[in-house]
Design a protein that fits this description.
By secondary structure, the chain is of the alpha/beta class. The protein has 26 helices and 19 strands. The chain has a domain at 182-300. The strands form four sheets. The chain has an eight-stranded mixed β-sheet. Strands 2, 3, 10, 11, 12, 13 and 19 form a seven-stranded mixed β-sheet that branches. A two-stranded antiparallel ribbon has the order 4-5. Strand 15 (450-454) and strand 16 form a beta hairpin. It starts with a helix and ends with a helix.
C-alpha cells in the first residue's frame, strides 16, 4: 500500500488501464512527469534562470558558443500555442520540416497539465491547469475546429463521456462556505439560489429566502441580499440604457453592490472571492458588467436588453479527464513519431507516452527543461540561446515562433522597438494555483449534499469534486466509496486596497513564489477539515495524495474596462507584431486565456512566416 510519503516523493503512478498497480508502473518509462506529486506547475528548476534574466538583470553570453543544431523552425514554448504552431508549420511547409520546440518545464503542455495518481487498484487522471474547451461549437474559429477534427476530437463524444446527471442524481448541489475569519463562524450552506427559470436547470436549487436565511450574517445583511435578487428593483432607476451600461463598465461589482445597491460590507463579502476562479480577481476589481454577463445577482431589474454572449449557454462538458492536456497529448502524438500508440481521442487518454522519444532523432523534437534566454536575428536565420542542466547552448532556425509569455519577450529580444517592448509588458498574467487532492472516498460530500464549494473569503476560492468524465479506457468515480480527485483553486491577490488588476497580479505572484509545499498542504488540510468535517471527513485519514500546480504566470491578461482604455486592442496588435523571421504567438497575443485563442494565435503567427 502506498503511503503519503510515497506520493510526496514522486513515486511513479498508474498509467495503463486494466492492469494491477505494479503492472501499471511497469508499463511506463521510468521518467514520467504526470505521475509526480508535491509542488508542480511552475516547479522548482523551471523558472529560476528566467527570473535571473528578467528580474535580477543577469546577462548570459552566447556569442562564443558554437551553433549546435539547425532547424527550419524553432518554437519557444511547448504549450498549446507552441505545439499548434509546430503543427501548422509542418502542415504548411511539409513533413520534411525540421522543428525544435523548447520548453522550460519538465513536461510538455504548458498550463495544459496532466496529473496522475493510483490508490489501490484505482487509477485517477486529473487536470492541473487548462481545464476545458469553452463553448467549442460557438466560440471556436474554423481554424480551431479544423485542428480538433484533424486530431480526431469529436465534440459529440463528450455528450456521453461527461455524466451531467451523476452528482444531481445523488442529491448533490453547489454550496457556499463561510469562513470564521470573515464571518465569525464556519458555515457550509448547501444549495443554490432558485430564481425564475432555474428549477429545470438546477433541480437541487432552493428559494432565495431559505438559502440566505442560513448565511452566518446579520438579519439586516440577509435582507439586503434577498432584495438583491428582486427583479422588480432597479438600483439605477432614472438612468437611460446607455448610462446604465457605462456605469456597469466603469464600476466594480463590489462598488455596485455597496454604493449602488446599498449592501453592507458583510453582505458584499459574500461575493468577494466568488469571481476569483474565472477572472483571477475579486469582486473589487471585476466590472459589474462582467458580473452581469456571468449571471451574478443585482441586475434583473435594470431592464437592459439581454445582450450577453449566447456562447455562455453552451454546456460546459468539453473536458478530457486531464482537461486540455488531452488536446496537447494528441498534438504531441501527431508531431513526434513513436511517442505513443493509438489514433483516436479515446485511446490517447490511457496511452503510455515515452518521454525518451520526445527529443529523439526525428523531424520534430521537443526539448524539455530548456529555458530560452536569447533570440537574435541575422540576415538569414534566427539564433536561439537557451540553458539546460546548467549549460548554455545555441541553435539556429530559419524562422522562429515565440509561444512563450509576452512579458519575457523584451528580455529575450532587447533590440525590439521600445513601443513594442512596452506593449508586450502590458500582458501581466494572473497567478493561480490548481491543486488536486485525491480522497480515498467521497462519502462526506454525499452526507453534506454538496459537489462543489465556493468560499468567497477563504484561501481556496473553490473546491469541487472532479468532473465526471469517462473516456477511452478511463472510468470516473461513480460510487462514493471509490477514490476521487478534488480540485481546489487558490488565486493570490491584494483586494480592496485600490490596486489595479496588473498590480494585484504582481503582488499575488510574489506571495505565491514564497510559499512551500508544506505551506499549501497546511492550508489544504485545514480548509477541507473545516468544510467537510461535519460530514465525517478527516484529512489525516481520507487524503491519499496531493499535487499542487503552482502557476506564477497563469491566465493571460484580459482587457478590464475598469483599468484599460478603448485602445487596448491597438496595444495587443502592437505587442504581437512580427519581427523579421520571428513571429509571436501564445494566448497572450489574443489577450484571453482560452485554448482556442492559443490555437488561433499560433495559426496567425505561422501564416505571418510562411504566407
Amino acid at each position: 500500500m502506498l503511503t503519503r510519503r510515497d506520493f510526496l516523493d514522486g513515486v511513479a503512478l498508474a498509467i495503463a488501464a486494466g492492469l494491477t498497480p505494479a503492472a501499471q508502473l511497469a508499463a511506463q518509462p521510468q521518467h514520467y512527469p504526470p505521475a509526480l506529486t508535491g509542488l508542480r506547475g511552475d516547479h522548482p528548476g523551471s523558472f529560476e534562470t528566467a527570473h535571473a534574466l528578467a528580474r535580477e538583470g543577469e546577462r548570459f553570453s552566447f556569442d562564443d558558443l558554437p551553433i549546435e543544431e539547425s532547424y527550419d523552425l524553432v518554437v519557444v514554448g511547448g504549450g498549446i500555442s507552441g505545439l499548434a504552431a509546430a503543427y501548422f508549420y509542418r502542415r504548411a511547409v511539409g513533413p520534411q520540416a525540421r522543428i525544435l520546440i523548447l520548453d522550460n518545464h519538465d513536461d510538455f503542455g504548458g498550463h495544459a497539465k496532466r496529473n496522475e495518481f493510483s490508490v489501490g487498484d484505482r487509477r485517477i487522471i486529473g487536470y492541473g491547469g487548462s481545464e476545458a474547451m469553452q463553448s467549442p461549437n460557438n466560440l471556436y474559429s474554423p481554424v480551431a475546429k479544423e485542428l480538433l477534427r484533424e486530431l480526431g476530437i469529436e465534440l459529440a463524444r463528450f455528450e456521453t463521456a461527461f455524466d451531467r446527471n451523476l452528482y444531481a442524481s445523488l442529491g448533490l448541489s453547489r454550496s457556499l462556505f463561510f469562513a470564521r475569519e470573515a464571518f465569525g463562524r464556519d458555515a457550509l450552506v448547501v444549495g443554490e439560489a432558485l430564481t425564475p427559470g432555474d428549477a429545470q436547470k438546477r433541480p437541487n436549487a432552493r428559494p432565495v429566502e431559505e438559502l440566505i436565511g442560513r448565511y452566518p450574517i446579520s438579519e439586516t445583511s440577509r435582507a439586503e441580499l434577498v432584495a438583491l435578487y428582486d427583479p422588480a428593483r432597479d438600483p439605477l432607476e432614472g438612468q437611460d440604457t446607455e448610462d446604465k451600461r457605462r456605469i456597469l463598465k466603469t464600476t466594480s461589482y463590489r462598488d455596485y453592490l455597496m454604493k449602488i445597491c446599498g449592501l453592507s460590507e458583510e453582505a458584499a463579502n459574500c461575493f468577494q472571492g466568488r469571481t476569483l476562479g474565472f477572472f483571477g480577481l475579486g469582486a473589487d476589481a471585476v466590472p459589474a458588467a462582467d458580473a452581469r454577463d456571468l449571471g451574478y445577482p443585482g441586475f434583473a431589474g435594470l431592464a437592459l436588453p439581454d445582450d450577453r454572449n449566447p456562447a455562455w449557454e453552451e454546456p460546459y462538458i468539453y473536458h478530457f479527464p486531464d482537461g486540455n492536456a488531452g488536446i496537447v497529448r494528441l498534438l504531441v502524438r501527431s508531431l513526434v513519431p513513436g511517442v505513443a500508440s493509438g489514433n483516436s481521442m479515446d485511446d490517447v487518454v490511457v496511452a503510455p507516452f515515452d518521454y525518451d522519444k520526445l527529443d529523439a532523432a526525428t523531424n520534430v523534437r521537443i526539448r524539455l527543461n530548456a529555458t530560452c534566454l536569447s533570440v537574435r536575428e541575422t540576415s538569414d536565420q534566427v539564433i536561439v540561446g537557451y540553458a539546460r542542466a546548467g549549460r548554455l547552448h545555441r541553435v539556429a532556425g530559419r524562422q522562429a515562433v515565440l509561444g512563450c509569455f509576452h512579458a519575457i519577450i523584451p528580455y529575450l529580444m532587447p533590440d525590439l522597438p521600445a513601443p513594442q517592448r512596452a506593449a508586450l509588458g502590458q500582458n501581466v498574467r494572473t497567478p493561480l494555483v490548481y491543486t488536486n487532492v485525491v480522497l480515498r472516498n467521497w462519502h462526506p460530500w454525499v452526507a453534506l449534499g454538496a459537489h462543489s464549494i465556493s468560499a468567497p473569503m477563504s484561501f481556496h476560492c473553490n473546491v469541487k469534486l472532479d468532473f465526471p468524465v469517462s473516456l477511452g479506457g478511463y472510468r470516473c468515480a461513480h460510487d462514493p466509496s471509490e477514490p476521487i480527485a478534488v480540485h481546489m483553486v487558490h488565486v493570490p491577490s491584494a483586494p480592496n486596497q485600490g490596486f489595479d488588476a496588473r498590480e494585484q497580479f504582481r503582488i499575488g505572484r510574489q506571495s505565491l513564489l514564497t510559499m512551500t509545499f508544506a505551506d499549501f498542504e497546511d492550508r489544504i488540510r485545514d480548509e477541507l477539515d473545516r468544510m467537510l468535517g461535519p460530514g465525517g471527513f478527516a484529512s489525516g485519514r481520507d487524503i491519499a495524495a496531493i499535487t499542487v500546480n503552482r502557476w506564477a504566470h497563469g491566465y493571460a491578461y484580459t482587457a478590464n474596462s475598469l483599468f484599460d482604455g478603448d485602445d487596448w486592442q491597438d496595444t495587443m496588435r502592437l505587442a504581437r507584431q512580427k519581427s523579421g523571421r520571428v513571429a509571436i504567438a501564445n494566448s497572450d497575443a489574443g489577450w484571453d486565456a482560452y485554448a482556442h485563442v492559443a490555437i488561433d494565435q499560433a495559426d496567425r503567427a505561422v501564416r505571418e512566416l510562411v504566407g
